[in-house]
């Protein structure tokens, strides 16, 4: 029975393919380091480097601005040289950058490194998606995107749990070890990815040869109305992430009657549901027009979550507040999963020979949200309560519906015939 179930699961998730296993291992290692670092980085910079909280915030914002300006250039490199070698280079650059955090004593060095590290960080995910686009067809792509997302969620949780040890001991030395562990995971990820034979790609598009202007001749995403639309919608839908990581902790603990333990229980519920539901949701909305519907449903789900969050603040006792928060988290997680399921729009609207550039441009919605979302939402929601919750929910619902309403024409058909560049030797045949 269990053997049959595993066989079916393995087939559904394409675990029999070597490239699937390598991508999942890469995602898991990368995200474990991210979980360790995210839980301890602020403590490292404030207690070991003795920077103020505000100074670290300025550095993070400066990094986000640099990513906004320069991360698409790394997408161009992925189009020119291929996403796999570019992603390996990005992993190595991230390892070097995070290692240098351990040596950067003056504040100006921290600022410079923050700009460099954040830029390659934000380019990593879309270049990884570009690689998946080359390796998998449309239906399989939805599955691998969902599986990678689930693995990333689980690995980040494990990394965060591992970080409880240095946090409990409040050890400056261990905070440094956490930074080093994060840097090391990127080297491991690069080594794992290097084991993927270059010849395994399905050749939806080939990297341009040196001097080829094919990718550069493709229309810029800035001149593509549909792509500008979905990038802006992506930024608005990503408000669900700001709500979860910035607003919810303070809302639950300071603005509701729910017990304080409710916060960790709600976050655990979100993590478990997201990991278990993402793959089937992605498979349900794998096509171009289905992804547009997923975007609309995501907006409605976030609206429902905002209404329930607002109501939880008005509940007079712990039990109704807790019930409303659980309802809100169920809707919130549904919106998160449906938003991820709308990702096929970013593939379908991108010319295959410029996919790296387009996907890094699409990811600018996340960068912009990281830069502006916490400042705008945190003060507004925590300061004004229910009316702003309703307004935010309505704005997300309207934005989510736009791709479904405005992109109802046929899916774009691209001419992806590109002159192949020099072929890398297949490691499997060495």
From TrEMBL:
<feature type="transmembrane region" description="Helical">
    <location>
        <begin position="173"/>
        <end position="194"/>
    </location>
</feature>
<feature type="transmembrane region" description="Helical">
    <location>
        <begin position="51"/>
        <end position="70"/>
    </location>
</feature>
<feature type="transmembrane region" description="Helical">
    <location>
        <begin position="258"/>
        <end position="279"/>
    </location>
</feature>
<keyword id="KW-1003">Cell membrane</keyword>
<feature type="transmembrane region" description="Helical">
    <location>
        <begin position="291"/>
        <end position="312"/>
    </location>
</feature>
<keyword id="KW-1133">Transmembrane helix</keyword>
<feature type="transmembrane region" description="Helical">
    <location>
        <begin position="82"/>
        <end position="101"/>
    </location>
</feature>
<dbReference type="InterPro" id="IPR011701">
    <property type="entry name" value="MFS"/>
</dbReference>
<feature type="transmembrane region" description="Helical">
    <location>
        <begin position="21"/>
        <end position="45"/>
    </location>
</feature>
<keyword id="KW-0812">Transmembrane</keyword>
<feature type="transmembrane region" description="Helical">
    <location>
        <begin position="227"/>
        <end position="252"/>
    </location>
</feature>
<dbReference type="Pfam" id="PF07690">
    <property type="entry name" value="MFS_1"/>
</dbReference>
<keyword id="KW-0472">Membrane</keyword>
<dbReference type="InterPro" id="IPR036259">
    <property type="entry name" value="MFS_trans_sf"/>
</dbReference>
<protein>
    <submittedName>
        <fullName>MFS transporter</fullName>
    </submittedName>
</protein>
<feature type="transmembrane region" description="Helical">
    <location>
        <begin position="388"/>
        <end position="407"/>
    </location>
</feature>
């Amino acid at each position: 029975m269990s053997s049959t179930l595993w066989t079916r699961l393995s087939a559904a998730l394409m675990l029999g393919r070597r490239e699937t296993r390598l991508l999942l291992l890469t995602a898991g290692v990368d995200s474990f380091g991210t979980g360790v670092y995210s839980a301890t980085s602020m403590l490292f910079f404030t207690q070991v480097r003795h920077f103020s909280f505000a100074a670290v915030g300025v550095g993070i914002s400066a990094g986000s601005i640099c990513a906004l300006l320069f991360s698409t250039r790394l997408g161009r490199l992925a189009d020119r040289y291929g996403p796999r070698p570019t992603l390996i280079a990005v992993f190595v650059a991230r390892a070097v950058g995070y290692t240098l955090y351990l040596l950067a004593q003056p504040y100006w060095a921290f600022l410079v490194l923050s700009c460099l590290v954040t830029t390659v960080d934000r380019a990593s995910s879309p270049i990884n998606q570009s690689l998946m686009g080359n390796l998998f067809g449309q239906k399989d792509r939805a599955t691998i995107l969902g599986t990678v997302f689930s693995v990333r969620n689980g690995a980040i949780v494990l990394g965060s749990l591992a970080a409880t040890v240095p946090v409990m001991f409040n050890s400056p030395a261990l905070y440094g070890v956490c930074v080093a562990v994060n840097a090391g995971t990127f080297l491991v990820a690069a080594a794992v990815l290097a084991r993927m034979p270059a010849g395994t790609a399905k050749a939806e598009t080939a990297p341009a040869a040196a001097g080829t202007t094919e990718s550069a001749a493709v229309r810029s995403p800035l001149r593509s109305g549909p792509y500008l639309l979905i990038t802006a919608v992506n930024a608005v839908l990503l408000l669900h992430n700001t709500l979860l990581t910035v607003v919810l902790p303070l809302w639950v603990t300071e603005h509701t009657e729910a017990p304080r333990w409710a916060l960790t229980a709600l976050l655990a519920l979100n993590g478990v549901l997201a990991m278990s539901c993402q793959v089937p949701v992605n498979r349900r909305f794998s096509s171009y027009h289905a992804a547009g519907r997923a975007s609309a449903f995501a907006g409605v789900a976030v609206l429902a979550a905002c209404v329930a969050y607002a109501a939880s603040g008005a509940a007079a006792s712990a039990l109704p507040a807790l019930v409303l928060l659980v309802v809100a988290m169920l809707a919130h997680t549904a919106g998160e999963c449906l938003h991820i399921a709308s990702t096929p729009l970013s593939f379908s609207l991108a010319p295959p020979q410029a996919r790296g550039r387009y996907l890094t441009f699409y990811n600018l919605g996340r960068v912009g949200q990281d830069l502006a979302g916490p400042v705008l939402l945190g003060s507004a929601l925590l300061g004004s309560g229910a009316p702003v919750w309703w307004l935010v929910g309505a704005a997300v619902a309207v934005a989510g519906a736009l791709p479904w309403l405005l992109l109802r024409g046929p899916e774009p058909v691209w001419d992806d015939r590109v002159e192949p560049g020099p072929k890398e030797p297949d490691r499997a045949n060495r």
